[in-house]
Each structure stands twice: as C-alpha cells, then as structure tokens.
Amino acid sequence: MVTNMVKYLANIETGILFQVDEDKEQESNYYKIYLMEEEEFDALQGDYPHKKNLSQGLKQIQYCKIETFKDCIQGTMKVPKGDREQIALFTFGFYVKGNELFFLGERALLGDMLEKISGNISNCTLNQILLVLFEMLIEEDVLYLQTLEEYLSDMEEKLLLKIPDHFYETIIQYRKKLTIFHSYYEQLINIGDQMQANVNQEFSREECAAWQIYANRTERLHNHVEALREYLIQIRELYQSQIDVRQNKVMSILTIITAFFLPLTLLVGWYGMNFPGMPEFRWKYGYPAVIILGIVIILAEFIYFKKKKLFR
C-alpha cells in the first residue's frame, strides 16, 4: 500500500514541531503527530483500542463529537469555513493514545495549523495540543460573525430606503449560514463540557480549566449567532412592514382616485336614465352646466383632501 502519511515530531520541552520521515526513530521527549487518510489508519498495526469505532464514524461525518475512553480519545469534526457568499465544510477525525496523535483527512488544513503552533506548545500534553488546534479552528470566527452583522446592518439601512429585489432569497441564504454555525458551536460546547468533566481520563486541573475556557468561548460565539438570528428575524419583520406600508400607499391612492370620480359616476348614472320628464334635457345650457358642476365637485374634493393632508 502506497502511503501518503505525514509524520511530525513535537519536542515536549521546546514545543518545536518538525516533519520527519516515517521510519525515523523517536526520542523519549517527543510526541508523534500523524496526518493520514482513513485507509492508512485502518491499516495501522499495533494496539489501538476502539479504532473500528472511529473508522465507522469517518465514513459519514455528520457533526462534531468526541469520545473519551480510559486508554484513548477519539472523535470527528465538521468545521464550517467561508465568507459572505458561501460556506465550505471541512471534515476530519482525530485519535489520541499515549504519546501519539493522529489526524485523519484535511491534510492541507491541519498541516498549516500544525506549522503555526510550532514553538508555542512547550510543556504541553497531547490533550493540550489538541485543544490548541481546536482553538485555532474558531480564532477568526468572531471576525466572520462581525462581518455578517455589518452586512445585515447595511441591508437594514438599504431596506429603509428601498425594498430590494430577491430579498427573501437573501434572508434564507443567511439563515442557513447562521443555522450551520449555531449547530457547530453547540457541538463544540458539548465537546468542551465533556472534556473538562474528566470522566474517563486523568486530566490535570490546568487541562480541565483550559477546556472550560474553550467551552465558555464557544458559548459566547453561540450567543453571538443567536443574536444575529434574532436580528435577521427583525430585518424580515421590517421588510414585511415596508411591504405593508407600500401596499397601504397604493390602496390610499386608489381610494382617493375612486373618491374623486365617484360623484361624476353618480352624475353619469343619474342623467343616463334618460327619463322624458327630466328638464335638463331640454335646457340649452344643461350640458355646460353639468361640466361646470363636475369641475366644482372635483375642486371641492381636492381642497378637502388637501386640508386633511391626504396628498403626500
């Protein structure tokens, strides 16, 4: 089997992390960190308990989860990353046992993250290194949420000036994005709570406190998403109110036009009866008189509506 596995050694004392060949011997003061594919992980020889559980979960990663056992920690991640236009979902698995840490999938993303933390993980345990990587996954999320909030604020201001086209399509698009992040942060909160609960592992007090800080941080991001979802609902209600105002204006115009011509319609209907006994038919000034009467009625209605401030 051709392997594309990438192996790193992390110096425990200095925190420096560097890539090595697969067959290079490891010294006692180094951690082993591997980037590999699922097939390579399945083919590993040795004592890796609960490996089949992780392999089964990697076939279709639906959400972020972590499982702590007495002899290992494993889990899967489904991480949303994106911009204002679209969101991409990155999935990978991880497995921690002894002095070995395995990452399965998304080699480019995880490789870049490992390069960034090199030198900043001195005297850390593998669980703490895993936590550092988890924190890196959300370090720029607050900026992304702020960008979304600024866009929603801009959309609200434009809505007050003009009702945009395809508004509901835009609202649905952003509601889907916020729903994805809402579920994501909720899952990360559960991971942080589970790790700091220290059920099957003997974590130090510092490790438990660090995972609690992580859970608190993801909870704040979760609350930020909650606020944006409520803001989106308010914008949708504002849009509906603007639609109602515009419809009311149209109905007002139609009502005024109808009121203008209703008296003239009455005159037409009245004199359209053509009864022989109607004296206006024999009066030579009957036609001009009806015209003048119609003009007077329209002028009177115009003055009345103007006083009532119905023209805006």
From TrEMBL:
CDD domains: EcCorA_ZntB-like_u1 (cd12826)
Gene Ontology molecular function: any one: magnesium ion binding
Membrane-spanning parts: 250-273, 285-305
UniProt topology in membrane: Multi-pass membrane protein
Any one Gene Ontology cellular component term annotated for this protein: plasma membrane
Keyword Cell division tagged: no
Entry keyword DNA repair: no
Compartments reported by the entry: Cell membrane
First-listed, main subcellular location of the protein, grouped into a coarse class: membrane
UniProt keyword terms in alphabetical order: Cell membrane, Ion transport, Magnesium, Membrane, Transmembrane, Transmembrane helix, Transport
Catalytic activity of the protein: Mg(2+)(in) = Mg(2+)(out)
Family: Belongs to the CorA metal ion transporter (MIT) (TC 1.A.35) family.
Function in brief: Mediates influx of magnesium ions. Alternates between open and closed states. Activated by low cytoplasmic Mg(2+) levels. Inactive when cytoplasmic Mg(2+) levels are high.
PANTHER family found in the cross-reference section: CORA FAMILY METAL ION TRANSPORTER (EUROFUNG)
Protein name from the UniProt record: Magnesium transporter
